[in-house]
From TrEMBL, chains A, B:
One of its GO terms (molecular function) is (R)-citramalate synthase activity. It catalyses: pyruvate + acetyl-CoA + H2O = (3R)-citramalate + CoA + H(+). Residues 535-555 are annotated as: Disordered. SMART domains: LeuA_dimer. This is Citramalate synthase. InterPro entries: 2-isopropylmalate_synth_dimer, AIPM/Hcit_synth_CS, Aldolase_TIM, Citramal_synthase, LeuA/HCS_post-cat, LeuA_allosteric_dom_sf, PYR_CT.
Amino acid sequence: MKNDKRVWLYDTTLRDGAQREGISLSLEDKITIARELDRMGIPFIEGGWPGANPRDGQFFWKLHEEPLERAELVAFCSTRRPNVRAAEDKMLQAILAAKTRWVTIFGKSWDLHVTEGLKTTLEENLAMIRDTIEYLRSRGKRVIYDAEHWFDGYLQNPVHAIDTLKTAISAGAEWLVLCDTNGGTLPAEVSWIAGEVREKLAIDPDDENSPQLGIHAHNDAGVAVANSLAAVIEGARMVQGTINGYGERCGNANLCTLIPNLQVKMGYDCLETEQLTRLTETSRKVSEIVNLAPDEHAPFVGRSAFAHKGGIHVSAVAKNPLTYEHIAPEAIGNQRRIVISDQSGLSNVLSKASSFGIDLDKNDPTCRQILDRLKELESEGYQFEAAEASFELLLREALGQRQTMFDLKGFQVHCDMLRSESEAIATIKVTVKGEDLLEVAEGIGPVSALDKALRKALVKFYPEVAHFHLTDYKVRILDSGSGTEAKTRVLVESSNGHHRWTTVGVSSNILEASYRAVVEGIEYGLSILPRRSEEAGGRRQEAGGGDLVGSQISR
Amino acid sequence: MKNDKRVWLYDTTLRDGAQREGISLSLEDKITIARELDRMGIPFIEGGWPGANPRDGQFFWKLHEEPLERAELVAFCSTRRPNVRAAEDKMLQAILAAKTRWVTIFGKSWDLHVTEGLKTTLEENLAMIRDTIEYLRSRGKRVIYDAEHWFDGYLQNPVHAIDTLKTAISAGAEWLVLCDTNGGTLPAEVSWIAGEVREKLAIDPDDENSPQLGIHAHNDAGVAVANSLAAVIEGARMVQGTINGYGERCGNANLCTLIPNLQVKMGYDCLETEQLTRLTETSRKVSEIVNLAPDEHAPFVGRSAFAHKGGIHVSAVAKNPLTYEHIAPEAIGNQRRIVISDQSGLSNVLSKASSFGIDLDKNDPTCRQILDRLKELESEGYQFEAAEASFELLLREALGQRQTMFDLKGFQVHCDMLRSESEAIATIKVTVKGEDLLEVAEGIGPVSALDKALRKALVKFYPEVAHFHLTDYKVRILDSGSGTEAKTRVLVESSNGHHRWTTVGVSSNILEASYRAVVEGIEYGLSILPRRSEEAGGRRQEAGGGDLVGSQISR
């Protein structure tokens, strides 16, 4: 479907998104995210509320010195306070100091918030909207008007609500954004209300000179994306949302879901096709910057969004991807994955093995042995879905192809916060190429000490170990109900500067679990990675070779 | 809104939900979940596919011996294979062996899946549907027919798709469930297709003797809930979904979102009002059983769903909850929370303190000191949103009300996997009531050893410590990009058998972070909990007193 109509994307990750519990952005974080959004081609990026906190003011100054390439940076602010002249409202001075071309002003639509919240009259509410927008227009700003609590307000007092928008238009606002601030509106209501607003304000979505409608949805009823789509169908030409749907309470409309729906499925024009392929990467980068684990089950961009686990699905997708995939994952920079797990039938194992370059015959009894071993380990708490390097080691072992790079005899960890403020000390005993080694190292914590001691021992025999380092370390408590005696699953991501791979260790002792994952990480890097890199080098000539390497970099 | 129409809930957590990456259910897990769903009043509970794996067979036998109280347990199966008699299909024998009154049979709606997947003809597809349903009817079963890939199939070949449903009706199916198997359909499409189906099959949603439509949506486009609502508006009277939206790829329609939307917002009759208040608890219990962290931002049931963080929201909600809450959290067993965080203004701290029974004056300079200390700790990686016990200790300290229960001098941890397979050993030095103590204990891992050593030292002075135990232990790596040297945040939940409370510790050394959280947990249990319990006892007489205790039990 292609309808050639433009929908303007407006990102508020840096303002509304940052309200999410658990997010706390530094100035540098905000700048990095803004540049990432700019690169992806988002036309409007809301940077913050300059008067509300000093960091947001600094953010606008920084980006005024070194501007974004294409996006319009937008400063956010409320209308003036009641009974104050716009020119004397400090917040409005702060928004002017942000020096953006565009500003977003939010005002009250719901009479309850005017009379109970602001303790003022509906007339004064209209005056606040008019004065603020007229003042900002007189200072050369272009204005987006966010109608806060639009849907609740319209249901309670449609006359006053419509008056607020008429006031905003006559004062010079170019966009009127219907905000579902409490997030409780359902799609059918959004449809009829947005349709009525369009008619009552005589807005023509196809006329460039007409003021236009936008939608700003929250996800408290789980339908923020559907509400945004409903508004677009009724003529809204701007959607406001956040990357990964971050936002207060249940979040804002998720742009990573909205954009592919609008563009790939409904044919609206939002981003260049090339920019759209950056979507998955942008989603993951932003989640790294805000330091939240990515939602692996997120539509379109999640690691599991195109993952196939059930046996029937796996064999059908191998025949024809259309059968179980609603869009091509490549369009948004994601990729298909075949998942290894408890439920996997033989076909999953075969398909995964073949992605490692191992051709297994399904009648080979080794296959059954691998499946049995897999189930045994999973019942102990292992999971290989995120630890493909460990899974490949398991496969190679079953096939008699696991090389002995070193033989570990054990470790000791000592951590003394009693007599000194010392770091942790780890001792490791290992046999390499017939030689017994005892090595010791200090680290900031016990796992770092273990990793250092092992690499110190091995580097004499395998110099490439000097380039290995741990890039991620994740701990998951299984059966967390049993407190500190619970089983611990540790995922370790290692890198040699070019490739990343993930290994897993499980134990009731967090140190032992960490140790196992670290050891497998080093073994994989030494024994399998060189082979993989050669093959990938060769395959990259052929189509699709990059995917193989991609599937190893399982982040 | 109340419309008195019944919508039948059909839960498939145990079958489709279990397909989610990361979920692996034991027989006991499945039984526990089924009983929980039964208690909440879900009328149809799909238990599994009896022929597909032995565990599902056992599950049905177990529940046949000790049946559910009210729910209909449903067994799931495909139609017979092509060119085989129904009576000779092993899968159909297995579904009969499950001994349920109701069975769900899924068949193909999309011609592509018939010709390419099954390699058979469209005529044989109709015969497979007819034979299977007629056979099961002849053996006394009542039949729900799941029309797999309905929407894709209808768009490709509406004549064949409608024929499959007509065949299912004439063979005796009572429910026809439109499945969006690939999850790519958008609400507007669901509306018009469901409307057309209702007309073409002459289904009357209000006639008890008519076959009825159902909807089974997947979330690949982020609109599974909205699609389900759209189908209900068009006359579907059954919604299939899973608790917490678990399911393959991006999951199934989330019943925890759908139920409140249907019942509280749209007025359909799904559960008793009393049963609905179990929703939040059920959501969290199921997430514990499947061992996945609950989605704190989930609509309705998430811990953040009614959490208020921004200063404006907090003060408005204090005046009138309606201003920023779309429904009353109590209706679904959730509760309002005021969040302590970096962004919190003074009003959040005041409001939280008052929930601890501490009345602060906002002009008191101590308030500013508390805010400053909070920001300092948060910049080190502390977070108090989930660790209210630690926050209360912080408040009491600032107010000069923190009692010294014991004075820690330090700890040593030793873990030897070199000379022995021993457990970890922890030594702790502590001064209690003027007496210096050195204690040592063994544990299965270092944290458990630390906890034991500390309690061993303290129990002589504080016998109640004998009843304390750790009930949950969570590790989060902050800044995970720096590998094993990253900062670690540990949350520890402690219990004395009646109350639970959560404390936090942060350090680059995972042992030190754990130690800090464990120590604060014991301190809170000794110094603050007794006071809290007395107050709560007093307050429980008044309305709302239970909430106070509830807010301490922050799970």
